[in-house]
Design goal:
This protein has 159 residues and is α+β, with helices and mostly antiparallel strands. The chain is 24% helix and 28% strand.
Length: 159
């Protein structure tokens, strides 16, 4: 099987979760994706955009991880969590997906606006990268495959 590199952009969203949800996810309890209203809302909103996580025969592809966000709220802020002048740590669900690097700015603006609208933070952490390459066999038409390029090892991806 030939593995091709496909130019994509990465979307990463940091989403606050409860300590309970953090615990469930860290134990591998998949029901937390459905049971946590914030994560469920995030996944539902992102599913509205078919361009996100489209890997040919696989749709809505994403990775997730757990972590903590830390911040100190400054004067003038209206924090959802924490108090002005205090450092706050928040359990966090990190959602990562990819979209075609050729997707137009208007489409990117639409899903970014949707994410900002539903995010519980006053200033959400949402990252969008420039083009990177991921491995895929389903996204590259066979006519474009170059016979001179060595195929990547199975499971390898550039990021």
């Amino acid at each position: 099987m030939d593995v091709q590199l496909h130019p994509v952009r990465k979307l990463r969203v940091h989403w606050p979760i409860s300590s309970s949800t953090f615990g469930q996810l860290s134990k591998g309890e998949q029901d937390a994706f459905r049971d946590d209203p914030g994560i469920a809302h995030l996944l539902q909103a992102l599913a509205e955009f078919r361009e996100l996580g489209d890997f040919g025969n696989y749709k809505h592809v994403f990775e997730s991880s757990l972590g903590f966000e830390g911040f100190t709220t400054a004067e003038g802020a209206n924090p959802t969590l924490g108090r002005v002048g205090e450092q706050t740590l928040s359990p966090t669900f990190v959602f990562t997906t990819y979209f075609d690097a050729s997707l137009g700015d208007a489409a990117v603006e639409r899903f970014m606006r949707r994410l900002v609208d539903i995010h519980p933070w006053e200033v959400p952490v949402i990252e969008v990268t420039g083009p990177v390459s991921v491995s895929s066999t389903a996204l590259a038409p066979p006519a474009e495959a170059s016979k001179t390029e060595a195929p990547m090892a199975e499971g390898a991806a550039a990021s």
